[in-house]
Each structure stands twice: as C-alpha cells, then as structure tokens.
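re: ur question from earlier - yeah i can do the single chain one, its not a big deal. heres the input i used so u can compare w yours
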Amino acid sequence: MRARPALFDVYGDYLRPRGGRAPVSALVKLLAPLGIAAPAVRTAVSRMVRQGLLRPLRLPSGPGYSLTPLGLRRLDETAARITRNGRSGWDGRFDLILPYAPVGRAEATRLTALGYGRLADHAWVAPRPADEAPAVLDAAAVRYERFSATHPAGTTGAADVVSRAWDLPGIGRAYAELVEEQRPIVGAITVRSPDEEAYAVRVGLIHRWRGLLTRDPQLPPALLPPRWPGTGAAGFVDRHAARLRPAAERHVERCLGGVTRSVRVGFSES
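and the output i got, formated as tokens:
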C-alpha cells in the first residue's frame, strides 16, 4: 500500500469525523501498522500539502495537518462515488461527453473514477451524469459537447455501448479476486485480536474496495450480466468493515491520544 492513498483513506475514514486534523506523530503511528515508515508518511504529507489537500497547523501536541476545502471536496467525491454503488434506477439514457480533443491522463483517470468509459478518443459515456465531470474538463481547458443519449427500443445498442466502454469481465474477475484474497485475512481477525491488527486489516480491505470502485461504472442491473460478482463483494466488504470498525476506532483513539475534537461531518464508506 502506497503512503499517499493510505493517508487519504485514513483522513477520510477516521480523521474527518474527528475534525479532519491530526499531529504528525499520530499520522506516523496510524500508518505504521500498514507497513509505511515515517519518512514515507512525511513525504506523502508534503505532497498533499503541495496539491492543496492538507494545510499545516499547530496543535497542542505539536505540528500537524488539517484537511483543506479542496481536500474535503475530494473526500466528498469519493464518498459520492461509493454511495452510488448499487443504485438500481436507470431511465435508459446515457450521459455522453464529446471532448474537442483527447483528454489528458489525469483527466481520464478522474472521468473513469466518476463512472465514465471511453468509447473513443473524443467520446466518453456514463450510465448517469456526474455533476463533477464538467469541472474536470473545465480545469484542463478542454472544450466539449454533452448530450443525453438513448437507443431505440428493441435494439442491442445499450449492450454494445457497455461492451465497448468497459471491461466488465475484467472488473467482475477483480471483484471475485478481492473476496478470495481478503477472506482469509479478515477471517483471521477475531475478538481476541489486537486492535492494531484489526485496524490494519480494515484499512487494507477498504483500500482495496475503493480501488475497485474507481474502475467500476456501477451500471444499473439492466446492463449487468447475471450473478454480477460486484454484488456479493459489496456485501462481503460491508459485513467485515462493520465488524472490524469498533476495534479500529479504539486503535485510532489511542494513536490520537485525545488531541482532536470530535466533529461528525458525514463521510460514508459504503
């Protein structure tokens, strides 16, 4: 697990509900069980400061870092992406974005994470519009057209769009592999396991889950193959994330040592 995404996950899951701030010493303690050394933590923090996601501040226990408005918005995007998982409603319309020029790698990554698939260099499609998509292209000064598109009833057009825009077989295999990989890991954590171990396993589980969600367009059931593996994987992650949360929260509290104020701001993981 790389330091920067791990740090972002920890801020989203555990620190944002506690005011979105923590001393550097606590950040080092929180990432240590994930196999991330202190120098890597400090490098990740510095990078997130340069990106405008964190800002330095002085806490009673020493220097620390707090989420910026941009950091909060990025967490909101992640939360919205996660909570869209399993949405079943669909009106038969695709959101079609036609850039006047090919988008860059960073923009392509953001569009993919928002649920868009590439039909061609100048065509991106999603099963539902994402409010954040225009900002992605506007920030890169990419001009585009945007349409709502449907196919005539009785045609295979929607299925053809799906097969061209997304690798559903690959995504389905990835979901099945996540469950196969994580089942013995989470199963090894019992009520007798140290809180630190439960925390590390839970962070790893959620990290892997979020990584898959950035690939999954979360299509409505009408566009999914039968027995879609993502459904079972979602239930698996939900059960074990909830089971491991109390122990993980205790470990976080010990690392923080009461230096943050508890402020509930509504981050949802699933």
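The two ends are 21 Å apart (CA to CA). not sure if urs matches, ping me
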